[in-house]
């Protein structure tokens, strides 16, 4: 998630540059190339085509846009003029993940494939809770989202809806965690700041990570955090997690942007890489995910770039091990 998209909304003057002029000449375009190009969340390469602004909603907290490009719909944050894609949905098949992180999240099920209660900190467009509800119709899902506009956008434009076992609480994630006396099998930390900070500072402190540990079930609980590998605080965040949690498994997407960090103590059995593959294959056969949890070149390969972070107290060594070679094909 969190890619930059160029959106033509205003009539601002775009000064020509040699690169723009060369592209316009090559493509025989009559308008600036920015009017035609957007970044595809699917492939990470440039796609040509007009974008349609479906809605823009402003509040004291945010400026949120919903943009449609072909059959892909994007939830875009523009509070600080960044036009960052927060979530995307394939409107032709709303359960087929567009974003890598949506399917990367499911790697946590390698350790607990039958969760009974999960907490999601940060709703976005509601992609992950919708997917989870599809494959786990009976589990309890609680969601904390600070921005009511985000919740309204998710409902109106991304087919998100609550049910008797899915609740949305409009509040800051830290305030919610401090106010409850509930235990979860999975906590998904997916809050995001619209700048180079990534995860908001108050949600990545040692104190908060220890607090999350207190509401995880001792034997089954895992924390899953969506990190952005290119953010300047990524390395510091990894060090903080390794201090708080005994085991941290990092699953990288094919574009090496999203890193899904699965953290825990006794709940995270230190499987070998092959054991993880075997358990993922069994889970794939059991749940019949529309995405492939083990290896697939045409969609995010959620285990193709698994990194193992050794237990704290040992030398932290990351080893790239792959199932599929994404550089070919």
TrEMBL record:
The active site is at 190 (proton acceptor). InterPro entries: PABS, SAM-dependent_MTases_sf. Keywords: Polyamine biosynthesis, Transferase. Belongs to the spermidine/spermine synthase family. One of its GO terms (molecular function) is transferase activity. Pfam families: Spermine_synth. Residues 34-273 form the PABS domain. It comes from the Eukaryota. It comes from Didymodactylos carnosus. This is PABS domain-containing protein. The keyword S-adenosyl-L-methionine does not apply. One of its GO terms (biological process) is polyamine biosynthetic process.
């Amino acid at each position: 998630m969190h890619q930059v998209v160029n959106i033509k909304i205003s009539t601002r003057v775009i000064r020509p540059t040699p690169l723009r002029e060369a592209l316009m000449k090559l493509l025989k375009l009559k308008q600036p190339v920015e009017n035609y190009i957007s970044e595809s969340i699917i492939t990470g390469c440039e796609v040509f085509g007009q974008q349609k602004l479906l809605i823009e909603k402003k509040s004291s907290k945010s400026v949120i846009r919903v943009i449609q490009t072909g059959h892909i719909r994007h939830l875009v944050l523009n509070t600080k003029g960044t036009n960052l894609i927060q979530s995307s949905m394939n409107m032709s098949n709303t359960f087929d993940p567009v974003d890598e992180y949506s399917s990367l999240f499911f790697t946590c099920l390698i350790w607990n494939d039958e969760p009974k209660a999960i907490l999601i900190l940060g709703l976005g467009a509601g992609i992950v809770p919708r997917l989870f509800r599809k494959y786990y119709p009976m589990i309890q899902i609680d969601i904390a989202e600070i921005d009511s506009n985000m919740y309204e956008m998710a409902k109106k434009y991304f087919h998100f809806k609550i049910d008797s076992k899915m609740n949305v609480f409009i509040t800051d994630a830290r305030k919610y965690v401090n106010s409850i006396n509930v235990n979860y099998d999975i906590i998904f930390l997916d809050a995001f700041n619209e700048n180079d900070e990534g995860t908001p500072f108050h949600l990545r402190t040692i104190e908060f990570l220890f607090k999350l540990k207190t509401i995880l079930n001792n034997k089954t609980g895992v924390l899953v955090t969506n990190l952005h590998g290119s953010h300047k605080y990524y390395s510091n965040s990894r060090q903080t997690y390794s201090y708080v949690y005994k085991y941290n498994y990092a699953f990288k997407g094919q574009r090496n942007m999203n890193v899904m960090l699965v953290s825990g103590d006794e709940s995270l059995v230190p499987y070998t890489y092959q054991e993880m593959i075997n358990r993922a294959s069994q889970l794939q056969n059991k749940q019949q995910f529309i995405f492939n949890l083990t290896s697939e070149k045409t969609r995010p390969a959620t285990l193709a770039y698994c990194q193992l972070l050794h237990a704290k107290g040992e030398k932290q060594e990351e080893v790239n091990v792959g199932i599929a070679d994404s550089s070919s094909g």
